[in-house]
Design a protein that fits this description.
With 405 residues, the chain is α+β, with helices and mostly antiparallel strands. The chain has 15 helices and twelve strands. Helix 10 packs parallel to helix 14.
């Protein structure tokens, strides 16, 4: 394909600017849709995972084997298992780890009572694993025994204010027990699970439940370290009777949603590709029909039919390239903007997907692979769409083409 062929193809495009612009718009729209769709979808999953990991879960957790089947403190880790589990991870690239003790109970204020999840944490270590302290809207984080941290939603529901006294009631080994706490901080979270959780020092949780161990050890890893790799290494070195639970083990429904969403994306990509292909093929084919006489004359003057076919193919490639640059540029710029500002779905998404760690603000993901994926789809679609018109040109007989044109 020489320079002359390229010049002819370029000149032919702009002999009918409206038709050419239509094809460019179709390809640009398809490129924009593919880029934005992948960026927002990946960003949705990343935002969901990041919010749950950073605010609530940690990178992964260690639990007693079988605890998930009956999550009560008595089925959790013994003090010896807590020490052994922490020691087993000492050789891995771990940023921090902290024991937790979780149970269910009742929170009673002067104005009402409601069920809550009680989470006992080690105040200093917990702040190294999760960043819930950054979501405080009033007061401070836990520091001493007898203090409690509540969500704004819980405080509003029970009409609790900062500095007020509340009572936690929980069922322990020796029956029901209760303890008074002072509200020292309020936090805001888009995760429904956290909004129903009361945080207290782990020693107080042990006193309430009568269990001296913990129900989990939350672990965080440094930025840039592969979580799956560390999880695999941790599973190889933890003592018997202890299991390593990653994000999907702790949220099995999230795995199903993510896998299902990826599968559902495939028909959508095919649909967009067909839309782009139909627009290019339809316009290119009409252009070929319109220029049948012209092609016949060019063939009679000595231009090879294969060269004419290459001209038609090159026209589609040039149009697709221009459309991809425009649509891809706008699409990636949209992703860069959404990665900083995010899409705010307000309380709707937070209330619907809070149990899965879905935040109310979704930040788009940006990756150079989106360009590669979109470019591959556009090029394949353009070549496929232009194949039949080029094949038709390649079979033109000069005399018949002049007469029919």
């Amino acid at each position: 394909m020489n320079l002359t062929t390229a010049r002819i193809a370029w000149r032919n495009l702009w002999r009918h600017p409206q038709r050419t612009l239509l094809m460019i718009v179709v390809v640009a729209f398809g490129s924009w849709v593919i880029l934005v769709m992948w960026g927002i979808t990946d960003g949705f999953f990343s935002s969901m995972t990041r919010a749950y990991v950073m605010e609530n879960q940690g990178s992964f957790q260690l639990r007693a084997r079988g605890y998930a089947d009956d999550p009560i403190p008595e089925n959790g880790l013994t003090p010896e298992q807590v020490d052994a589990a922490e020691a087993s991870l000492s050789g891995l690239r771990i940023r921090a780890m902290t024991p937790r003790l979780e149970t269910s109970g009742m929170l009673r204020s002067a104005y009402g009572t409601d069920g809550v999840a009680i989470r006992g944490v080690a105040p200093v270590k917990e702040q190294l694993v999760t960043k819930l302290q950054e979501n405080l809207t009033a007061g401070r984080y836990l520091a001493h025994s007898g203090e409690i941290l509540l969500s704004n939603e819980t405080a509003e529901r029970l009409d609790i204010r900062l500095g007020e006294r509340v009572v936690l009631i929980a069922h322990g080994e020796k029956g029901t027990s209760s303890q008074a706490f002072i509200v020292v901080g309020l936090f805001s979270s888009a995760l429904a699970e956290l909004n129903r959780t009361a945080l207290i020092p782990i020693d107080d949780a042990r006193a309430l439940t009568g269990w001296d161990g913990g129900t989990a050890i939350a672990v965080s890893i440094p930025p840039g370290v592969s979580t799956p790799r560390i999880v695999t290494q941790a599973r190889a070195c933890v003592p018997a009777g202890i299991e390593v639970a990653d994000y999907y083990d702790l949220n099995p429904l999230a795995r199903i949603i993510i896998q299902g969403s990826v599968i559902k994306m495939i028909p959508f990509v095919i649909m967009v590709s067909l839309l782009v292909g139909f627009g290019v093929a339809n316009t290119t084919f009409y252009s070929v029909l319109e220029r049948t006489r012209e092609f016949g004359v060019m063939t009679a003057l000595g231009m090879g039919r294969r060269q004419l076919a290459r001209v038609v193919l090159l026209e589609s490639i040039l149009v697709s390239a221009i459309g991809f640059v425009l649509g891809g540029g706008v699409g990636y710029s949209s992703l860069l903007y959404l990665s900083r500002v995010g899409l705010n779905f307000g309380r709707l998404l937070g209330s619907i997907g809070g149990d899965l760690g879905m935040p109310s603000v979704i930040y788009a993901s940006t990756s150079g692979w989106y360009w590669v994926a979109a470019f591959s789809v556009v090029v394949f679609t353009a070549l496929t769409a232009a194949w039949y018109p080029a094949r038709r040109v390649n079979r033109l007989e000069p005399v018949v083409a002049i007469r029919e044109g």
